[in-house]
Amino acid sequence: MCAHSWHARSYRDVRYLNTWLEQGFAVVASDYQGIGVPGFNPQFNNRSNAYTMLDITRAALTHFKGQNKSALLSNQVVLVGQSQGGSAVVAAGGYAPQYAPELAIKAIVGTGIVYTSANQAPRSPNPERDNVVDPTIAYNFYHVLAAQALDPSLNPAQIYSELALPLLEQARTSCLAELSADVAGVGLTRANTYKPGHETILQQATQRYGDDVQRSFPTVKLAAPLFIGVGEKDALLEPGKLLAQDACAAGSTVELHVYEEKDHSGAVNQSLQHSLPFVRKALAGEAISPVCKP
Predict the structure, then answer these.
(1) What is the rounded CA–CA span in Å between residue 179 and residue 292?
(2) Closest by Cα among 239, 270, 6, 206 to 113
(3) Which helix (H) or strand (E) holds 90?
(4) Distance of CA 211 to the CA centre of its chain
(5) Tell me, what's the pLDDT at 213?
(6) How does pLDDT run across 249-265, given as a tens digit for each residue?
(7) Which helix (H) or strand (E) holds 257?
(8) Between the ranges 23-37, 39-53, 117-131, 183-197, where is the mean pLDDT highest?
(9) Fewer CB atoms < 10 Å away: N or C end of the chain?
């Protein structure tokens, strides 16, 4: 029931996608593996998400051909995603040279990207941040369910407080928008949600069940230029900045933008003022000046 193809887009997404359509782009979107069918939602399985994105692009290019076999869609691909989709497009950019080398990926645009850096310092307590109600905690419930499906020995009671545990069960049958609203309604913060040492427990479980379910990318050295947009008030601000630094250090061409007063969702449409010119430059083969730090 959480499949995008089963229900209408949000007003945020309608405005965003219509802007791309008005600019002459075709929009192709995947439900991702495991969404809209029985079973758990592998929310952060970046390999799975990347493959489905590349597969549906290949399918679109193959399907939309005219009677004379001339392509109705050009093989000039721009990978665009928000949040989970932001992770998916970066991962897809890394997998594409081996998995889908026939796709001409010209640019990658990610907003609110979920990223865990090898250079990331351990999270230190921050009362001002950790005691604020945080709807993005909903994402972590899906992450834990995906981990538990592959490693039944993972005990959620070691990760979540008694206040938060019922929301983990709710996540089994709730879509993201509803679950985020429930997180806000219960008043979950990082301080009242997680037990001490929860990140270590998840990290140890990840080592047992493999990196694919962790928020990892095959590489951050990307052949196509990467646009990163993130809101100043997004909990993923620091990961977004770290990704920009890591990708730049790896040799990728990166353009980073931080949007003042915008949260995780608010940066999506705000980013169009910069992402559209970025993509136009990439499609025209023009040089893009790297912006690795805000």
Answers:
(1) 34
(2) 239
(3) helix 84-99
(4) 16
(5) 46
(6) 999 999 999 999 999 99
(7) strand 254-259
(8) 183-197
(9) N
Residue 293 near residue 240 (C-beta atoms within 8 A): no
Phi and psi at 256, nearest 5°, equal -100, 135
- pLDDT tens, 93-103? 999 999 999 99
Angle among Cα 133, 90, 108 to the nearest 5 degrees reads 110
Residue closest to 49 by CA, chosen among 84, 1, 79: 84
Task: Give the integer Cα–Cα distance in Å for 259 and 90.
Answer: 20
Sort 205 into a burial class: Cβ within 10 Å, 0-12 / 13-18 / 19+.
buried
Contact 268, 12 (CB under 8 A): yes
Q: Mind listing the pLDDT tens digit for each residue in 84-132?
A: 899 999 999 999 999 999 999 999 999 999 887 766 655 666 777 788 8
Please write the tens of the pLDDT for every residue from 53-67.
Answer: 999 999 999 888 765
Phi then psi for residue 41, to 5 deg, are: -95, 105
Q: How far apart are CA 172 and CA 156, in angstroms?
A: 13
Residues 294 and 286 sit within 8 Å (Cβ to Cβ) = no
CB-based contacts of 42: which residues, under 8 Å, 6+ apart?
32, 33, 34, 48, 49, 146, 149, 213
Asked if 218 and 226 count as a contact pair (C-beta separation under 8 A), the reply is no
Partner residues linked to 108 by β-bridges? 79, 226
| DSSP assignment of 45-100 | -HHHHHHHHHHHHHHHHHHSB-TTS-BSS-S-EEEEEETHHHHHHHHHHHHHHHH-
Report pTM.
Answer: 0.87
Closest CA to 265 of 100, 103, 77, 138: 138
Take residue 242 and report the two structure tokens written for it. 């770290």
- Does residue 67 or residue 197 have the better pLDDT? 197
